[in-house]
């Protein structure tokens, strides 16, 4: 099975030549064989003559015994001939300076490769002014060059969003420059030009609207920066809005900016709480003590009961006035 995959099949000319040669081997005449193949007579005649000459040369006299013996002796003599000694070249002598220079070159190359790798790895969050921002731009250009179709539109969207994000970070740091605004305008114009060739779909249009909102908010904050002219920021904002509107195919509406307004908060009103009313407590009843007399005997004494006190009315600063309880004491004395 595997042999059949790699086996070459003979072509048309090879098949014709093999068939004609077999007819010649069977003893037929050359002219008769050529007459059987009138369309291939031109190239077939030369091939058959060549094969006949090879057969004639092979059928000649064989080599003599003496020739074979002399040839064998020459081969044996060549085998017994000693081989020349190999030439050994001495190792070159390197000086310490050359070794140090070579080592420094290797270390410098490794450091350069490390810096390049570190720059490309950490360039994702770089902003203008950072040491690795150039690596970020180079990576974006390479990604844009290798992209095609809808992928290129997505790449351009991502690069424009990166410029907006960088402007936002620089605005927070107070380091906005004219070159940053120009970079954002350039990316927005590239997006608009690309949208003319490759129309945006619904998802990309929604992404463009979100980009317009973010750009409007960033430009609003950039106008507050004292180190850059507000008129230049307004011009960049207008160019950005026009580019996004071109990409969308419709004008971009200005988004209202929310301003904080002070609202009066209601003051808490004191709530009146009821003052607990003091409860009237029963006063202890007085128990009369017998008055001693000379010979008198104490008679039965009456016991008095405490009269109930009235309940005081509750007011904010009212005080309970206790009511005196009258006690009645009766005593009887025995006459002598």
Sheet having the most strands: none
Distance between the termini: 161 Å
Which segments are poorly predicted (pLDDT under 50) over 5 or more consecutive residues? 254-268, 273-336
Q: How large, in whole angstroms, is the Cα Rg?
A: 60 Å
What name does the CATH topology of one domain carry?
A: Four Helix Bundle (Hemerythrin (Met), subunit A)
Strand count:
0
Portion in strands: under 5%
Q: Mean of the pLDDT scores? A: 74
Order of helices and strands: HHHHHHHHHHH
Query: Helix proportion of residues, in percent?
Result: 40-55%
Helical run tally: 11
What's the overall geometry?
A: elongated
Which CATH class of one domain is shown? Mainly Alpha
CATH architecture of one domain: Up-down Bundle
Structure classification: mainly alpha
Describe what is shown at a glance.
By secondary structure, the chain is mostly helical. The chain is built from eleven helices and no strands.
List the defining traits of the structure above.
Four Helix Bundle (Hemerythrin (Met), subunit A); mainly alpha; 55% helix; elongated; 11 helices; disordered C terminus; 336 residues
């Amino acid at each position: 099975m595997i042999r059949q995959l790699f086996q070459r099949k003979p072509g048309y000319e090879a098949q014709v030549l093999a068939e004609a040669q077999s007819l010649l081997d069977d003893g037929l005449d050359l002219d008769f064989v050529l007459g059987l193949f009138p369309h291939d007579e031109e190239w077939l005649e030369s091939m058959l003559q060549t094969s006949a000459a090879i057969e004639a040369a092979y059928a000649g006299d064989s080599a003599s015994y003496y020739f074979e013996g002399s040839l064998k002796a020459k081969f044996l003599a060549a085998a017994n001939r000693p081989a020349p000694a190999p030439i050994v070249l001495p190792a070159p002598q390197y000086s310490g300076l050359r070794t140090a220079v070579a080592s420094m070159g290797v270390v410098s190359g490794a450091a350069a490769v490390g810096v390049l790798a570190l720059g490309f790895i950490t360039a994702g969050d770089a902003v203008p002014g950072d040491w690795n921002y150039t690596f970020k731009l180079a990576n974006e250009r390479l990604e844009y060059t290798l992209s095609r179709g809808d992928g290129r539109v997505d790449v351009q969207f991502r690069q424009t969003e990166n410029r907006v994000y960088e402007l936002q970070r620089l605005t927070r740091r107070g380091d906005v420059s004219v070159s940053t605004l120009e970079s954002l305008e350039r990316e927005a114009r590239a997006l608009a030009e690309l949208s003319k060739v490759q129309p945006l779909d619904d998802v990309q249009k929604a992404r463009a609207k979100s980009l317009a909102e973010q750009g409007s908010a960033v430009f609003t904050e950039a106008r507050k920066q004292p180190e850059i002219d507000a008129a230049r920021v307004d011009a960049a904002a207008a160019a950005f809005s026009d580019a996004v509107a071109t990409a969308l195919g419709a004008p971009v509406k200005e988004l209202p900016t929310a301003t904080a307004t002070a609202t009066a908060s209601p003051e808490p009103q004191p709530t009146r709480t009821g003052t607990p009313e003091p409860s009237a407590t029963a006063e202890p009843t007085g128990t009369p003590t017998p008055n001693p007399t000379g010979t008198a005997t104490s008679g039965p004494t009456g016991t008095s009961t405490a009269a109930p006190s009235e309940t005081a009315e509750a007011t904010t600063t009212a005080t309970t006035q206790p009511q005196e309880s009258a006690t009645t004491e009766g005593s009887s004395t025995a006459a002598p």
